[in-house]
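Appendix B. Raw example, untouched.
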Amino acid sequence: MFKGFYTVATGMIAQQRRTELLSNNLANANTPGFKADQSSIRSFPDMLLSSVGKTNASASQQAGSQYMSQVGALNTGVYMQETSPNYVQGQIYSTNLTTDMALIDGYLPQNEDGVTGSIFFRLEHPEGGEAYTRNGNFTLDGQGYLVNPQGLYVLSDAGQRIQLQNDDFQLDENGSIYVNNQQVARVGVSYAANPNILQKQDNGLLRMQDGGDLPTAYGTDGVNFTLRQNYLEGSNVDSSRTMTDLMTAYRAFEANQKVLQAYDRSMEKAVNEIGKV
């Protein structure tokens, strides 16, 4: 009976976490460059129950297979195994702002595990090292530096801050920035052969788990991409499907809750009614 309490509780916890994940995805459906999180729920290993055939046998005899008969498997609940972002490109839309930039995935190779690589804008992280993002909603700060919405500096391919006189500049598809037909910088773009090694942080930022930096995407074998000015990449959240999944998770949580209430009523009867006999 008590095992049932724990099994149902694990189901409720897993569905609660899934609901929180889906709610976060839905809340960021209009956030430029946002990558939806995915979850996988697995069951704990089943326990195989057996019964002892002869109760008057010694302990050593009972351990033998001839005295044991299988009753069946007992499931011990489920858990959310992992969450990982979906790096599929979102829809590209026009903004008519010269400081807005979008990364357009061309051909990105797969690694040995079948994981497709991904490309990101390079940012200077205030704690040192680099951060990465797909959100190209950039602006110029008071000193003319190209920054992201949180004020982090956008880095060039050489790892330097990009400073411009004003927003009257041109960005070609190769990432080069031109002012008066003179190239002044090249927007930094990094490549992750396995983007799952990146950790998600607040405001759509990504960082390496070990605090290191990703290699440049320019000139990497098999990596093909372009940049587009006056455009942004939208979120890749499918609002309709996410809402459906959210309702499914809620109904699963509700079903587990009703089972838990049934266990609770059974325990109440066992204590208050059967215990009086």
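End of appendix B.
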